[in-house]
Amino acid sequence: MKELASFVKERRKSVNLTQEEFAERVGVALTVIRKIEQGKTNLNMEKVNLVLRMFGHQLAAVDSREIEKSDNEL
To answer: 54 near 25, Cβ under 8 Å?
Structure first.
């Protein structure tokens, strides 16, 4: 979650927006932006993806079996 928090915070700052301005542009509550940037773990994936879409990114669910499989192939 720290990587997500840093990514969002750095990108938001790079476009010179406050948390409040950014939340308004994305269409989410200010608390959503604050939770993401604080690295909270109880986030709504749909809301996170709304934020990430502003930067051309998105999160997707990953099957843990696929991760294990790729780790074993290394």
So the answer is: yes
| CATH superfamily name and code, 2-73 | lambda repressor-like DNA-binding domains (1.10.260.40)
3-state helix, strand, coil in the chain (%, to 5): 65, 0, 35
pTM: 0.77
**Tens-of-pLDDT digits for all 74 residues of the chain?**
679 999 999 999 999 999 999 999 999 999 999 999 999 999 999 999 999 999 999 988 777 776 666 667 66
Query: Cβ(32)–Cβ(47) under 8 Å?
Result: yes
Determine the straight-line distance between the first and last CA of the chain, rounded to whole angstroms: 25
Contact predicate 39/2, CB 8 Å: yes
What are the structural domain ranges in the chain? 2-73
